[in-house]
Amino acid sequence: MQKLLVQISYIDNRIIDDYTVEMWHRTFPDDITYVEAATAVPIAFAESDAYVTPHRILHIVKRMRQNHATRNQHVERLQIESSWNGDDVPECRDHETPITKCDPCQHQLSAVAGTMNDDRLHEWAIENIYRKA
Fold first, then answer.
1. Strand ranges (DSSP E) for the chain?
2. In sequence order, which residues have a C-beta less than 8 Å from that of residue 131 and are 6 or more positions away?
3. Residues 124, 130: Cα–Cα separation, whole Å
4. What was the pLDDT predicted at 83?
């Protein structure tokens, strides 16, 4: 903790004594590493010119951890989604374009959609709209 306070004192000229070191040490939970706290110090000074307190350092470390967790979740989600293999989009036989981009064929599908269940609609589209492979 003393090393962290020395780093802070280089900027705000605070006086460091044994009591200050002890109180900062008691304030920090055991799961906060020196590296996390030391990384938070320049952020604290960049965000405000207010006196750096243990509370501000803890708040910044919490925010850094949340940002890291969010990034990890995003990367995991991208890895999972990239493994998904979908079927190719069928083309319409009359216009030779993907069915998702063919307005006339989409209108035709939507006109009959209310009269059939999903499986029957798909069978109907294979017979009447989709180009044969």
1. none
2. 90, 91, 92, 93, 96
3. 9
4. 79
- Closest residue by Cα to residue 64 from 30, 45, 27, 39: 39
DSSP 129: T
Q: What is the largest CA-CA distance in the chain?
A: 85
Provide the 10 A C-beta neighbour count for residue 90: 18
Residue 45 burial class via C-beta count within 10 angstroms: exposed 0-12, middle 13-18, buried 19 and up: middle
Q: Classify residue 132 by its DSSP letter.
A: P
Q: Write out pLDDT tens, residues 64-100.
A: 999 999 999 999 888 888 877 777 888 999 998 998 8
Give me the residue label for tokens 């320049």.
42
Q: Which two tokens stand for residue 80?
A: 């999972």
133: confidence class by pLDDT, cuts 50, 70, 90? low
pTM, entire model: 0.58
Q: Which pair of tokens denotes residue 127? A: 């017979």
Residue 75 CA: distances (Å) to CA of 66, 69, 78: 14, 10, 5
CA–CA dist 28, 61 (Å, integer):
11
Scan for tokens 């055991």, then name that residue: 30
- Residue that the structure tokens 């605070």 belong to: 14
